[in-house]
Structure formats: structure tokens, C-alpha cells
Amino acid sequence: MKAIIKYKKPLFLLALLAGSGIITFFYFWNPANNVLFPKCLFYSATNLYCPGCGSQRAIHQILHGHITTGLKFNYLIGFLTLVLSYQLYVFIVQAYFNKSVKNLLHKPLTTKLILIVVLLFWILRNIPFYPFSLLAP
Predict the structure, then answer these.
(1) What are the boundaries of each domain within the chain?
(2) Contact 114, 121 (CB under 8 A)
(3) Quick check: 135 and 52 in contact, CB under 8 A?
């Protein structure tokens, strides 16, 4: 266990560097018209949107300052941003300030609620009637 703690900060910095590279990639290349980005296998097989459909286009738009356009591609991006921001906050407080923080994301109820939100979003975005059609990318 101590070996994991010993490498926690360097691994975080490596992940931060990799994340910066990915963000740079999404900033300069538009997934909507570039073959470098993978297409959704679930959509290709079923013609139904998965919870992640539209995420690549959403990230590209948000990085260019078009927040509402990005959210229209995938509304879960906003939810994901909140969850990841909270997780980053907990990590930084624990790793760099040596303070104990109860991570609410590790609670079974939180996990179930996130699962329910994702499943509901998945179902509702595939209903082809207004207002649910607004959830489709």
C-alpha cells in the first residue's frame, strides 16, 4: 500500500500531462469531421444513442467556448464535469494537504444515483418525441 502512496503524486502529474494532451487534441481537431476519432459502436450496431454519444463533439465545442452548443450534444458532460471536479478536489486535498475528506462518490447511494441518472438519460434520449428529442446529439 505504501508503494501506491509513494507514486501517487507522480502518477497524478503523469495523468495531468496525458489529460492536457488529450484536451489539446480535442481543441485542434473537430470530431464532427475528422476520421481520427472513433465512432460509437453502440450507435453503429443499434442506431440508438448511448449515454456517451455526442461527447467528443461536446468537448470540442466547450473547449472553443461554445458551452450551450456543447451541452446540446451531450447534457451528461455537465454532470461528468461536476463529478470529476469533486473527485479532483478530494484527491488534491488528501494528497497535497494531507487532510482527510470523506469522498461522497464512494458511498453506495451516490453510485446508485449516478447509475439511475445515466440510465434514465440513455432511455430518454432515444425517445423520438419532443421534449425527449432535445436530448439526442
Answers:
(1) 2-135
(2) no
(3) no
